[in-house]
Specification:
about 40% helix; alpha+beta; NADH Oxidase
């Protein structure tokens, strides 16, 4: 599979089987992803990979915290989206959500069902492997771009291996609960989670195929 094929093949899976991912495959993909470009070659990414009991412990802790009526409300480490989200980005996000919930047969006014689906983020959609990606709090926007290039490289490498993924910025909401388990150094900020495994081909939600805006909408060529 070449890079172009991997780009078109990659999808965000939101239902996984219990098939394990070989440790050597993960090690190879992470090692190769570190060849992503970074300004000054500072390589600002930090990753924590969980599987087995460590993953179950993390998920149990976070979900218990989410559903504890006495727990303080979470404070996101950063806003996942700007507020308000202006056009055309607002329409793109709205369309994505409507398509996703339509596949699940969840109507717009069924808020409890939508919240239950959203909560599946915090079980990594039952993926057998989870990854948390961190960045040093002292870094600036160029290093966040480097982090994104690392993440994209990892997604494409895993896709080329036949492994499915779902990057999850939603974990930024519950970074404090995650830190209670992982206890990262205080200088590290959680950027996102990543579910890794093999997609459940029978799950309706995995039929979601999002469209991309036409080139003319966002690119200008000057001669």
């Amino acid at each position: 599979m070449d890079v172009r094929e991997a780009l078109h093949a990659r999808r965000s899976a939101r239902a996984f089987t219990d098939r394990e991912v070989a440790p050597e495959l993960l090690t190879r993909a992470l090692t190769d992803a570190a060849y992503a470009p970074s300004g000054g070659n500072i390589q600002p990414w930090h990753a924590v990979v969980l599987r087995g009991q460590s993953l179950r412990t993390l998920v149990d802790h976070v979900t218990a915290r989410i559903h504890d009526p006495d727990a303080p409300p979470p404070t996101p480490v950063f806003p996942v989206y700007p507020s308000p989200l202006k056009s055309p980005y607002r329409e793109r996000r709205f369309s994505n959500g409507e398509e996703l919930y339509a596949l699940l047969g969840i109507p717009r006014d069924d808020r409890p069902a939508r919240f239950r689906q959203f909560d599946r983020n915090f079980r990594f959609f039952d993926a057998p492997v989870a990854l948390f990606l961190y960045i040093d709090r002292s870094m600036h926007q160029p290093q966040w771009a480097d982090l994104g290039m690392f993440l994209q490289s990892l997604l494409l490498l895993l896709t080329a291996e036949g492994v499915d993924t779902c990057p999850q910025a939603a974990w930024a909401i519950h970074h404090e609960a995650v830190a209670e388990v992982l206890q990262p150094p205080p200088e590290l900020m959680l950027f996102c989670g990543l579910a890794i495994g093999y997609a459940d081909s029978t799950a309706a939600i995995n039929r979601l195929r999002t469209e991309r805006a036409p080139l003319a909408e966002w690119c200008t060529f000057l001669d």
